Fold these 3 entries.
Entry 1:
Amino acid sequence: MSVKLNLKKDELIAIAEEMGLTVPDRAKVVDLRALIESSDVYKNDIEFVRNLIDNILEEKRERLDGFEKEKLEKLEREKRECELELEKIRLAQFEKQLEIANATRDLANTSQATEIGEPGSLNDNLENLIKSVKTLTIPVPVRSESFNLFFHSLEKAFQNKSVPNELKAEILLNILGEKVNNLLAYVSQEDLCDYEKIKQLVLKEFEPTPQECLSNFKKAQRLPSETYVQFASRLCASFDYYCQLRKVTDFRSLCDLIVSDKIFETLDRELMTHIAVKQGESFFKPQQLGRECDVYLS
């Protein structure tokens, strides 16, 4: 009794190699089936072939189980690290709330001093503005995927304190401190005064891949110290950033992205890696993604 070879390309290659057959370059699934079925081993010892298939499929299942276990452990580690960092951020914000009243008062006093032309008052005003903005902003992130939340928080602080555009770059550099020392070596003096250029430089250096960003969004959970409104704001900022990385700007492209992400989730590890490399920072629309998968499996 013959054995049906309704297997994937990588499985057929493994079986052919175990049977001692030479696999042609760029062989398709149909070619691999024909190669195995035309062999003497397949024709004369079908029981051996059946056992060989069972063994190869079992080994693959064990590898996948090991991969899934490792993946779950990694997700748990990342979740704990993320929770720890967010807890630190919450604690830092709570501690800094005690400074807000003093910072506001100092800023008001400095503004009065500026109006009467007191020496050094402009520098004092900037220093107090930096201190005030820093108080309202989450700490500089340790994890790269948190930088979008950092800038989201910083720009809210700018808006809250009515910070002039010409001071934003200097305040940002003061807050980042040593974090950007290496980056600034490649920035012109003119660009040092441009907040948007400094921001994009930092995001480019530390931004996660789109797939990492999506993964972080999906595994996000509300922290015990976080209200649901705060959790919702964090999720919105995270998803907005993912759409920005994928260059999604309208409803149609958002629908395409959601469908493509769903298809991507169903792929096996080998095909998933192939597609991820090919699409890079952008993404394949559903029909294009389907064609890429079919071509790879043919």
Entry 2:
Amino acid sequence: MYDNAAENNKGAKGNRTKIVIDLLKISISLTLIILLLSNIGLASIRRQIADADWRYVLLACMTFIISNIMGALQWHLLMKSQNMAIPFKYSLSFYHIGLFFNNFLIGYIGGDALRIYDVRRYSGDGAAAVTTVLFDRFIGFLTLTTTAMIVSLLWIGNLKSLNAVYSIAIILFIWLVALFFLFNNKAGFWLGRLFRPLLPGRIVAKVEEIYCSINNLRHSRMMLVQVIFISIFVQLLRIVTHYWTAISIGAKTHVLYFFIFVPIIALLASLPISFGGVGVREQSGVALFTTVGLGASQIATFEFLAYLVGIFATLPGGILFILRKEGKGAAS
């Protein structure tokens, strides 16, 4: 009886903590939005959206939709490498459901958790589900940052400030160090020994299982090459989506600035400090693009438009989530 009471108290405390954290993140999003609107004005953003050239907005939607289909293919190849017999139509369904919820949940954690849940529900292999989603997310961040680094070095003479370049270099270094530990057995297990005493045995066993699954991906070289090339294509399309929304409201600057700044914006928006990256995306966009002569009002508008495009392009995920059947499989 006392054990049950203790467990109930622990659960209630955990729920309260979660509520406090969620409220804090909502507060961060709202604070950033209020600060932005106080400097720019809601009327200005509303007017620019109303006057937008919707041909470019439609082009942005089409670009993002193609990137989503290619992103699902990237993830599907990773699942095939784990011997998961999941038809592509289900990979596409699960991927879009995850993307849809990423628009509204904390960072990208909520949508990725749904992807893991769906794949585990279909295949019964929880470790492989976690492996493929984590590595899919990692490879996306790595190719996005690498692209930004290459473009920033090629365009460095045209940058008034090198702060963005330094930021990208630091982030890329972190990803490369992570890749080294993921694909190097000795380094990975050495790092594991440092953290093993701090974690319960069950969690250690799960982490080691997932680590070994990711580590074994290094043997699937052809698959990795395919995934990397697809990922580069996906990230380029998603960057271009922001460019189209900027053009739609007449915010004109060289497209290469988008390949430098949008990856930083995307990485900041993915941090679990806000819901759907709202507020963080717009504020970071203003901080970066004002350095190349764009107005804060224009930047906030095209970044918000890019967010709306993302919601529209992932609407099939929301519909599939509502229509899908519980149990093995997905929405028919």
Entry 3:
Amino acid sequence: MNHPTALFLLAAKQAEIKALQQLSTNCLLVTSISELVHQLQRERGISNIFLASGCELFALQRQQQLLQSVQAEQQLRTALNKQYLQGEEPCHSSRLLSGISLALQGVDHLAGLREQIQQQKIAPLQATEAYSRLIAAWLAVVLESADLACDAGITRFLVALFNLLQTKEYAGQERAWGAMGLASGQLTTELAERLLLLQQAQQHSAAVFLEFATVEQQQQWHQLDQSTAAKQLRQLRTMIQQLSGTAAPVPAVSDLWYQFATERMDEMHLLQAGLTAQLQQLTSATVETAQQKLKQHQHKLTELSELTGLPTSSGLTLLIDPSMPGLYGASVMPAGQAEPTVQAPSRSFYQLLSEQAQHIRQMQTELTDARRAISEQKLIDRAKLLLMQYKKLTEEQAYRQLQQSAMKQQCRISDVADAVVKALNPVKTSP
């Protein structure tokens, strides 16, 4: 069928398929990023112990971990080149590509950081901060990929995955700070507060993960939370809070802390691997379903063309459909009610058009709900940045201020972030 109306209907379906294929590409990227982030988190933790011990501990483990990190980096670079620089369909998101370039710039300078660590020319805290900035940059790319998703089901999966990754990153930072404090004997009140803040941040991200996770994923998380490593870590957390303000090195406890924190993070990584595998299956199935729907449309239009010659020859059209909006103030009747008697073929063609329009509207409604968590996360990030700029706070201090305000006002942290953004970044009006 070569009628323009029918061709536009097919073009809409083809555009949806292309968008889903680009989304599938982005999901492959997210999988590669997730693995690199995991290896960088392990490298960060091992490097902390290596530095804090004066190169005496974890020297061999560090060399082995560097090989794992470099391998994950190479796999990610290969995927990026294949999917975004050499792919048939160019990526049209400047935000995503900009985020990738920023994160890659950090990876480009990893060799220098590793050499500083090897030569003991950098403090454990500085090394931790450097790794954490790089990991945050890659997590921002994951968040952007979720925001670009055009399918509600896949978006929910990406939101769940991002918040699991964010929970795991907060857990990694908690591991680093706790290990440094216990090994050095500097269990200050400030350190105890920092650890408590990171634990609360984990709870927040985990709650969002559970909101968007499947029932099976929720069960896996609850099992993880009741694992031996998680229970032992909770006991050590309590001990640190009780010992805060003391200055006695407890290296044996430091080793236990690192061990249990690492076991818990490895369990999170297993859950993460399951999510990324399911994500790939979901994207493939979604693309396949859309392609099958396109074939069904093509077959139906061919049948209608043979019956009527033209799809718009007579019958029900947009002009007389009482279920479509039009005159301001006029009532809109539900579809299927008070329809005029029309020829079956014409009704079938208009039904194809209506179904496609309804499919897009439904998809947008579901996407809006799924993207709520993404918008809230970006709002929190924006509020932190403004507090850092205007009040000269560190990122940790900015987040702590948001968190404390939310607890005091008994509201969500995103509500506080919204108020901060409106107060510190008012809309500028033209003179």
